[in-house]
Design a protein that fits this description.
Blueprint (H helix, E strand, L loop, with lengths): L10 E4 L4 E8 L2 E4 L2 E8 L2 E4 L4 E13 L2 E13 L4 E13 L4 E7 L18 H9 L1
Parallel strand pairs: 1-3, 2-4, 3-5, 4-6, 5-6, 6-7, 7-8, 8-9
């Protein structure tokens, strides 16, 4: 009415006790208190609260972890709080781990290739191994 521009901010919330599976996309900032399994994407900040979990593939602008993330992550900025744990493969421009936070995995600065899961080839038994087995 008076020429003011109203900014619209959106906030999504996945409550504790809620479990989502499959492909999920969020618009706006998102708080995760429950569990999400599968592919997740967001154009904004995702926050995994204490007790929250995301397991799978995640693409977002920024990820703050106070709960648990397991899987492949691609983001511009990753912050692991003192209660947070990130396990897996991370492609991020910046990463901050606050004392007490845990990062278990591999990090690359560019998203050229997140490590692809590779199958372990079957082992071939050499003659020496056959001989050892027959002696035993």
């Amino acid at each position: 009415m008076f020429g003011r521009n109203k900014t619209k901010t959106e906030l999504n919330f996945i409550a504790p006790g809620t479990r989502l599976t499959g492909e999920t996309a969020f618009v706006g900032d998102t708080l995760i208190g429950g569990e999400i399994y599968g592919k997740v994407s967001s154009q904004e900040t995702l926050t995994i609260e204490a007790g929250g979990l995301i397991e799978g593939e995640l693409r977002c602008k920024e990820l703050k972890v106070a709960g648990l993330f397991k899987g492949k992550l691609s983001c511009e900025k990753l912050i692991i709080t003192n209660n947070g744990t990130v396990e897996g493969e991370v492609a991020s421009k910046t990463m901050e781990v606050i004392e007490g936070g845990q990062f278990i995995g591999v990090r690359v600065k560019d998203e050229l290739l997140l490590l692809e899961s590779q199958e372990i080839p079957e082992q071939t038994v050499t003659n020496n191994e056959k001989n050892l087995k027959s002696i035993a």
